[in-house]
Request: fold
Amino acid sequence: MATKTLQNHIAGAYREAHATERLDLIDPATEGVYASIPLSDQTDIDAAYAAAAAAFPTWCDATPGERQLALFRIADAMAARAEEFADLESQDTGKPRASLVDDEIMQSVDQLRFFAGAARSLEGRAAGEYLAGHTSYVRREPIGVIGQVTPWNYPLNMAVWKIAPALAAGNTVVLKPAESTPLSTLLLAEIVAEHTPAGTLNVVLGARDTGAALVAHPVPQMVAITGSVRAGMAVAESAASDLKRVHLELGGKAPAVVFDDAEIEKAADAIVAAAFFNAGQDCTAATRVIVHESVHDELVRALVARTQAHARTGGPHEEGVFFGPLSSAAQLAQVQGFIDRLPAHAKVETGGRRQGDTGYFFEATIVSGMRQDDEAVQNEIFGPVLTVQSFSDDDEALGFANGVRYALAASVFTRDHSRAMRFTRDLDFGCVWVNTHIPFVSDMPHGGFKHSGYGKDLSQYGFDDYTRIKHVMTAWD
Reply:
């Protein structure tokens, strides 16, 4: 397999890295090497931030209408090159190629278009006289240069979630994609450079040390990351030493609470899709089924039947595949480790094994008989593993659901409106679905509480982290 030698994208063009050390990219479906990236060093990061700082005055001074037009043009260019984006995303991640355009690429286009429109509706509160003889008003302004780090599970989608509100608000960006999945982000940088001042978006490649240097750099006034809890804590600690703003979208351990009055067949359909899409490598994936004891066995049978019929894993170009491989050998080992360490009271209902000898494929897995303090219930597996617990009453169900350190997403399945309203209030998660799990739209916020981080992606609320508020007061005389 021919390998590509990838470069950073700085000040509107590809630039050879100062760093000489490189990292091979491994195809998760074949385990073959297909490209390499530079492990960018301080000199490379200095250059990227210098370009972003130089571009900021021009981009900041652009009118909202001008920024809107640029983002619309970027979105249109993405849509026109959707097949190319899908090829790159499938190469990096091993995801099924056939569904990528509709499932992820066009969603990213829609998110860019949302923020293009929202760029013209940023506003402060109305002006008024709050002190005699003085008029006050509020300006909402861009922060400046932003440092961003994105994950490997949705490389393009997460890059768009990060850059769209930042650019729409008038900021400039230095972004480091995950070291294993840079291809679609580099193409995005090419397109952004065609429609914005050089240096508006800069992409530096590298691994953990590169990310740490990007966060610690003195130029950005804010850093944003989507990643693990461990990575988020490191970012928050580093940023605190320089009083940078921080946006953290971290892990999840989403419960799906199923009551005895739920439509079991529909609940099973929704949960299986939400548990195994993207090989369960999704912070909002349904990972914990919490089901009333009276319908426990019925639901488990339905979950197993649908999983065995529909949740098939395989290579990116195989037909009838629902999800692809795990992202890496390390991720495969992590998922297998959770299964190997299951307690004696747990029962693997289906799956539980690596599939094949080549590629990081793992079967869709359902484990019943789980208890609240079990490792696989408490900790994020980030793979195609669904655990099942039973409960006897509403209070116990709520206690199980909230009884983890994550608080990103949850769902409740019931036909009782009063119960649904009570649980949407009492479930301690940033997003709660009723009788479904995992759909989201550009217009509504995404973000969690507790160890799932803070700050919101998507929606008008996505601007809150990427803008600052200034009070202006004018004396009449």
In short: The chain has 14 helices and 23 strands.
